[in-house]
Amino acid sequence: MPASSPSKKPVTPRRSLRAVKSDPVPPGERRLRFGEQWQYAPAPEAHDHLVIAPRHELFINGRSVPPTSGRYFASINPATEEKLTEIAHGDATDVDLAVQAARRAYEGEWGRLSGRERGKYLYRIARIIQEKARELAILETMDGGKPIKESRDVDLPLAAAHFFYHAGWADKLQYAFPGRTPQPLGVAGQIIPWNFPLLMAAWKLAPALACGNTVVLKPAETTSLTALRLAQIFQEAGLPPGVVNLVTGPGDTGAALVRHPGVDKIAFTGSTAVGKGIARALAGTGKRLTLELGGKAANIIFEDAPLDQAIEGIIAGIYFNQGHVCCAGSRLLVQESIYSTVLRKLRDRLQTLRVGNPLDKNTDVGAINSRPQLDKIRGLVQSGLDEGAELVQSSCPLPAKGFWYPPSFLTGVTASHRVAQEEIFGPVLSVMTFRTPEEAVERANNTPFGLSAGVWTDKGSKSFKLVNQLRAGVVWANTYNKFDPASPFGGYKESGFGREGGIQGLAAYVRLT
Ligand code: NAI
Ligand code: MG
Asked: Model-level pTM greater than 0.90?
């Protein structure tokens, strides 16, 4: 079905419901393809009120500062390929300045504040995020390509919720660790990815600050804008200078932060390859480390599952945020007896997904974050085809400019295929079958990852049994991709270690004596 593309298209009139097979088709008209009847008129979110400065500097010691090297790089809108702004390219010298500022703040004003006072800052930040939610959501969508309905309804409320939740902990840390005395670690270096730019910043900053640490944060190079807007919010909230510093730049900037001897802890979310390199770089240094890496989650659907609900969960699990989700349900394990029904329902539902302008409020699937990511998706799908899988794709037209990949799934996938083992990080589902619950568990666990999984069944006892057998940090039952700041998130095996959220997440930012 036609997508609402970023370019201004004439409004297509809504067609009458003549998709039912038994309806006669009058002469001269054609029968609508499945999904065509649900076409909506374009409903783009206005963004002309949003002023994006042509250049963005680093944020060090509470101030905007130019990069020592004088270099900048472009940040584009992946849905249009338009340049949005220039971002400072921070290097090792800038990282050093930021770490020094963070150290001074830690040893100065921030380090002396009571938990109660720290909490007040966090509450203030949470409230300002709520006030500026619309602006932040639009910026997130323009910079990263995700649909506005996701930035608006998922990223923003959760980002505020993380600050609120951790604000509540700031003066109650002794209750989180009964009988122990929690002390902050010092300066935390945090490196975040591009799939949930503001939310990942909130996940990392809120617990670090609640526990009394100071921070140097490096956003991902394709999506630095909302983190930089957050810096303005910190200024507005009166956060003392140096408590949070932002150094923008590519992977080298992150590597300089990892190597810096003045950092007490590194928290990283991103690819498994980079995560492994960071673990090697930190070995023997005494620096604390938490890693949240890739995933290859299995959504397991049993014959007794509520099927229509399960289809919605599968769709949300893989096509949410274009599959740019580390816990995406990128493998579907279907019980053999319901395979053909599930496949038919999935194929039909695929056609009803709206792909196109991420700023359109009706868009379900937005733009792929960058060209390299699009190339990676294409390459992995090709490997699946080469290895004998079959591709089913939505027939939706894609906008001419920008980076797009249609919602897709692969059938005939076997456990050894690359598409069953490697993270695709795109809107592509690999479908496989199983016969018994034991086989489902064995298949689900058969990857190097262990971040998340989903179980769909009418029988509670079956879910509970499976949950204990699945080697995954999060298991959802009869739902998918649900988050709460009070619920710890993190992986097993190559998906990393350490937890974010909940009491377990606080533990990553304190030393217990
Ligand atoms: P990446 O791991 O290179 O990037 C994540 C962050 O790490 C970015 O801020 C980046 O600048 C930084 N970084 C890169 N190299 C670094 C280094 N040597 N030292 C310190 N920091 C470094 O991920 P990339 O290249 O953007 O995506 C590649 C693949 O990684 C994706 O296709 C996906 O499979 C996976 N990925 C997983 C994520 C997750 O949430 N688990 C998030 C992003 C990517
Ligand atoms: Mg961008």
From this structure: yes
Closest CA to 115 of 182, 160, 179, 190: 182
Q: Which residue has the tokens 């699937």?
A: 365
Ligand 1 nearest atom to the CA of residue 426, by list position: 32
Query: Could you list the active site residues?
Result: 292, 326
Residue having the nearest C-alpha atom to atom 42 of ligand 1: 270
**331, 266: one domain:** no
Domain with 251 in it: what CATH number?
3.40.605.10
8 A C-beta contact, residue 196 and residue 237 = no
pLDDT per position as a tens digit, 89-135 = 999 999 999 999 999 999 999 999 999 999 999 999 999 999 999 99
Question: Taking CA 164 as the corner, what is the angle to CA 163 and CA 165, rounded to the nearest 5 degrees?
Answer: 90
User: Could you tell me if the CB of 326 is within 6 A of ligand 1?
Assistant: yes
**pLDDT higher than threshold 90 for residue 18:** no
pLDDT score of 35: 60
Report how far ligand 1's centroid is from the alpha carbon of 193 (Å): 6
Ligand 1 centroid – CA 494 distance (Å): 14
Which residue has the least CA distance to atom 38 on ligand 1?
Answer: 270
Alpha carbon nearest to ligand 1 atom 13, residue: 251
> 479 lies in which domain range?
298-484
How many helices and strands in the chain, by DSSP H and E?
18, 20
pLDDT in tens, 300-321: 999 999 999 999 999 999 999 9
Please check whether residues 261 and 403 belong to one and the same domain.
no
Instruction: Judge if the beta carbon of residue 376 lies within 6 A of ligand 1.
Output: yes
If you average pLDDT over every residue of the chain, what do you get?
A: 94
257 and 151 inside one domain: yes
Residues 284 and 156 in one domain: yes
- Same domain? For 169 and 247 the reply is yes
